[in-house]
Design brief:
The complex is a heterodimer.
Chain A lengths: L7 E12 L2 E12 L3 E5 L6 H9 L4 E10 L2 E2 L5 H7 L1 E4 L6 E5 H15 L7 H14 L5 H4 L1 E2 L5 H15 L3 E5 L7 H13 L6 E6 L12 E6 L2 E6 L1 H10 L2 H5 L10
Parallel strand pairs in A: 3-10, 3-11, 6-9, 9-10
Antiparallel strand pairs in A: 1-2, 1-4, 4-5, 7-8, 11-12
Helix pairs in contact in A: 2-3, 6-7
Chain B lengths: L1 H11 L13 E3 L6 H10 L4 H15 L23 E3 L13 H9 L13 E7 L2 E5 L2 H6 L3 E4 H7 L1 H7 L10 H9 L4 E5 L8 E7 L10 E6 L4 E9 L6 E4 L2 E6 L4 E8 L11 E12 L5 E8 L4 E4 L2 E4 L5 E10 L4 E10 L5 E11 L3 E10 L7 E11 L4 E10 L5 E10 L2 H9 L4 H17 L4 H15 L5
Parallel strand pairs in B: 3-7, 6-8, 7-9, 8-11, 9-12, 10-13, 11-13, 12-14, 13-15, 13-16, 14-17, 15-18, 16-18, 17-19, 18-20, 19-21, 20-22, 21-23
Antiparallel strand pairs in B: 1-2, 3-4, 5-6
Helix pairs in contact in B: 2-3, 3-8, 6-7, 10-11
Classes of the chains: A alpha/beta, B alpha/beta.
Chain lengths: ~260, ~475
Amino acid sequence: MNQMKTNSMLSIKSLTVDVEGKTILHGLNLEIGKGEVHAIMGPNGSGKSTLSHTLSGRDGYQVTAGEALLDGEDLLSLETEERAHRGVFLAMQYPVELPGVNNMTFMRESLNANRRARGEEELDAVSFIKLVRAKASEVKLDPKLLKRDVNSGFSGGEKKRNEILQMAVLEPKLAILDETDSGLDIDALKIVADGVNALRRKDRSVLLITHYQRLLDYIVPDHVHVLANGKIVRSGDKSLALELEDKGYGWIEQLPETAAGASA
Amino acid sequence: MPAIEQTVEELVQESYQHGFVTDIESDTFPPGLSEETIRHISAKKSEPAWMLENRLKAYHRWLTMVDPEWAHVEYPEIDFQDISYYSAPKQNQGAKSLDEIDPQLLDAYNKLGIPLDEQKALSGIAVDAVFDSVSVATTFRQNLADAGVIFCPISEAIQEYPELIQQYLGTVVPYTDNFYASLNAAVFTDGTFVYIPKGVKCPMELSTYFRINEAKTGQFERTLIIAEEGSSVSYLEGCTAPMRDENQLHAAVVELIAMDDASIKYSTVQNWYPGDENGKGGIYNFVTKRGDCRGDRSHISWTQVETGSAITWKYPSCILKGDDSVGEFYSVAVTRGMQQADTGTKMVHIGKNTTSTIVSKGISAARGQNTYRGLVRIGQKAENARNHSQCDSLLIGDKCGAHTFPYLEVRNPTAQVEHEATTSKISEDQLFYCRQRGLSEENAISMIVNGFCKEVFNELPMEFAVEAQKLLNITLEGAVG
């Protein structure tokens, strides 16, 4: 547990988080190495979204103990946008609509904000258009969506693909996909999964948060963790996901370590 | 939502950019309003007797009227005897060219980004500069005269083109119209006159820049634009004033007249001093603007970006008399600090197949109160009239207010009238989404607000659209970092 991997991308230790005065994460530990894909599965209310929001720095998530290091740097003391500048990307479960804000403009402004913060030169409009067209074809997004307002009137599948496109453009070190599979039919799911697979790199780690096993048929994780009652109660490989699919989450709830307050 | 509130607090503290005072010797009437004051104004302008008679008629009418109270705004009673009704820079009287104008005045306009020197001016834009009660310079008059276009101070038009003034002045907004329009008809001191002859497309953008400088004065200007058959013109106005602790009154009247196939596009970027964050000082902007689509297939379009003034009370309207005529109203109104705005439009459909479009975007931040008030009236004979109204309100923070009062009167069964309204808040979700992508909170707010206003900004002439966008960023973004 306290051995720090030399190729660590994300290292979470004893993370305890309160939301509106209620403790949701109870001393969570998680190590993600560079280039690894980890899946976190768990029943509703187990703390999956709390984990993704805490890591990305959303207001209202109170860290009362523990730490999270990104590439060795303390993540939890940074502002939301500073975490983005360091390479944290959250593909959201419910991507937000921004009426009147052009999708392309939004992505260019985001990318350039990140580049400025990293002391890199901004991309001009022409280079950006080239980049975004190439990325759109990589993740199979209809280029017409680039001209529309951010997520405005997009179908559920289009919104999720637009998240993957933003991820492709921003090239994060750590991509967190929060229930990206929810609400997608099987064709849309495949396209999103293909997009994520196309973006797998040795220096990019992915944290997949999902309720269902089926996403993992298309994005094969290196490790699977089961989250229950704010803690990781089981870790394993892909077969753990299949076991969960078989037995459901009921048996997890019965485990002694699942009980609140028990030490992991 | 502490993050949003904090940003709003910072935004609100952003100071006003045009608050300087020009130290210039002026000829200013002592405060007070009486028949004597009006005779005095008329004499200053060497007006013909008929003009004085019109003024006195309006004054006596005004004495019988009361300050209207129906608007959703609050202010202490105005003491009309405590206002000076005329103030003019002394050295300017009778200046015929820029060389004769006090350099301090030119300097004031340079500071505002409006060079009056034609060599330095924005290409393609002619400017009439109104300083307190008088027009101090009008650029590119010769170029325009070559095209047959008259562009001059209205006080000059009263002397030079009395037949046009007598024929048209007060025919769209009569002196009996309302309290402030009557007051204006009695005491107006200057403003702009535009006449576009038959078939002429005005070769330049025309603009008036209004500046209030002197303390305790009211500005009462009058603008009259006439577009003859088949002609077209695009006109812009901008407004600023120094920061002062007492409120100042600006009560203007604008009349537009479009004949057959004529089109008038009237754009306003209003940035009068709004007062400080506690509501001290600022301009009361009580204005009557109305366009008369007198001819068939005529077209009048109002676009306004209202970011200043302590109180804004104005309803640029269209009377759609001509068959197939078109009226449009595009508006962005921002209130922050303690600002109050009650603004909107009236679309009065009289002719057949008349069409009107209303797009109103209200933005409220801090303790600002923003009201849309609009009337769509379809008359008995207005066969196949159509209106589409869209009123959107955006709230930033939780101490501000947005209010919508749409009035509809339909007297012809063939009418098609649509009204859409939305109220939204910049949500914590939206800000989190933007920040997660690496944008700062200010950038996120500015991007969302500009997106919200896009439909209106698209209607502004190019230079003004950029200006308006900048102004909005200054107004709403400002002091952070």
